[in-house]
């Protein structure tokens, strides 16, 4: 696969990506039933799925944006660097600058006025293995530092046999943190993140061939979330009326509590919670995690945004798959994300 094809693949899902570091606060206040305790964990788990799906594959942006992404012409700067402006499908503007020493920066301005700078270190190549360090800072004070290690198996033009590992830490303005790893190999991606509040999140996703760069929606993806002794096991599937995205989510929350939900393209959800097969509550949430929980008995829970939902959308780290990271199936090719003629390999 040529570089231009890799860029086309990356920009086909050209995407802002987001995740936050901690998970605390919020939740339902209402009848002391299994539903009232499990609903916040259920929504928090769904939000982790939403944000990591956006980070790795740009799913939210590609499923909800209506604009047309575009590149401006390359600009040669006096210091020898080359810049190019990218406008995302949601109106995000990114100035990508490739420097002569092999480093790259992305200066991002989001539609809401927030800004972010991503710095890609100089690629370090040893045989088929490329290691790159990444530093991300946002206008709200969030920082992210991680390393990507890509083994292309000696086949530069074949992404299918790549092995990609990402490992790093994100820190919020309140000093809460998240340690995360992402491993992709053999047509499969595994995510693990551990938050400083003690919560953990994991996701296992089969990828679609031949390049294994995007989830295989004909197979179920699975996820786990734990906070304070509450375990949530999730299964994500497409549906007959929405075969190109995850549209259904089922959950097992332990103690006989389970859930069945429909997901919107932005991962807002609506469905029901059951206790020992008996319907106990209707639950819905917005893309930002605001919950609506109504019990069959007639009670209605007073709810805050579930778990970390407020922080998810406020304190976030974001970048583009055009950088070849952190998208798991796209190898760090050693090129800046500018047109090939303008960014020679070093």
What features would you describe in this structure?
The protein is mostly beta strands and 346 residues long. The chain has one domain (3-334). It is 13% helix and 39% strand. The chain contains 4 helices and 22 strands. The chain has a 20-stranded antiparallel β-sheet that branches. Strand 12 (177-184) and strand 13 (188-195) form a beta hairpin. The longest helix is centred in the N-terminal third of the chain and has 24 residues, at 34-57. It is globular, with a radius of gyration of 20 Å. Residues 1-36 and 304-346 have low confidence and may be disordered.
Shape designation = globular
How many domain regions?
1
In DSSP terms, counting alpha (H) and pi (I) runs of 4 or more, how many helices? 4
Q: How many strand segments?
A: 22
Which structural class matches the secondary elements?
Answer: mainly beta
Biggest sheet architecture: 20 strands, antiparallel
Provide a concise account of the structure shown:
By secondary structure, the protein is mainly β.
Topology at a glance:
Blueprint: H1 3-12, E1 28-29, H2 34-57, H3 59-64, E2 70-71, E3 75-76, E4 82-87, E5 93-98, E6 104-109, E7 115-120, E8 124-126, E9 129-138, E10 143-151, E11 163-171, E12 177-184, E13 188-195, E14 200-206, E15 221-227, E16 230-237, E17 248-254, E18 257-263, E19 269-275, E20 278-285, E21 291-295, E22 302-303, H4 309-314
Antiparallel strand pairs: 1-22, 2-4, 3-4, 4-5, 5-6, 6-7, 7-9, 8-9, 9-10, 10-11, 11-12, 12-13, 13-14, 14-15, 15-16, 16-17, 17-18, 18-19, 19-20, 20-21
């Amino acid at each position: 696969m040529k570089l231009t094809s890799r860029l086309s693949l990356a920009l086909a899902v050209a995407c802002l990506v987001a995740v936050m570091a901690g998970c605390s606060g919020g939740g339902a206040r209402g009848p002391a039933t299994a539903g009232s305790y499990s609903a916040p964990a259920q929504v928090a788990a769904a939000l982790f799925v939403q944000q990591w799906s956006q980070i790795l594959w740009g799913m939210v942006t590609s499923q909800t944006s209506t604009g047309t992404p575009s590149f401006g012409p390359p600009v040669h700067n006096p210091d020898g660097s080359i810049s190019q402006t990218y406008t995302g499908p949601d109106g995000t503007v990114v100035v990508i600058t490739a420097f002569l020493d092999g480093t790259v920066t992305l200066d991002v301005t989001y539609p809401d006025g927030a800004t972010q700078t991503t710095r890609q270190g100089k690629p370090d190549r040893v045989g088929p293995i490329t290691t790159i360090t990444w530093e991300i800072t946002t206008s709200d004070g969030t920082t992210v530092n991680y390393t990507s290690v890509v083994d292309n198996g000696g086949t530069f033009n074949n992404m299918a046999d790549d092995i990609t590992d990402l490992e790093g830490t994100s820190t919020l303005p309140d000093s809460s943190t998240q340690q995360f790893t992402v491993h992709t190999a053999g047509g499969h991606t595994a995510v693990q993140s551990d938050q400083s509040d003690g919560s953990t999140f994991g996701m296992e996703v089969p990828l679609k061939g031949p390049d294994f760069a995007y989830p295989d929606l004909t197979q179920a993806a699975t996820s786990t979330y734990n906070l304070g002794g509450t375990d949530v096991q999730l299964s994500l599937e497409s549906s007959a009326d929405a075969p190109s995205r995850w549209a259904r989510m089922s959950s097992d929350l332990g103690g006989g509590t389970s859930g069945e939900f429909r997901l919107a393209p932005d991962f807002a959800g609506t469905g029901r919670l059951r206790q020992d097969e008996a319907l106990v509550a209707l639950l819905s949430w917005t893309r930002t995690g605001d919950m609506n929980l109504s019990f069959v008995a007639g009670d209605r829970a007073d709810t805050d945004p579930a778990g970390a939902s407020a922080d998810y959308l406020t304190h976030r780290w974001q970048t583009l798959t055009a950088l070849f990271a952190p998208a798991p199936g796209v190898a760090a090719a050693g090129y800046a994300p500018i047109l090939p003629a303008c960014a020679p390999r070093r």
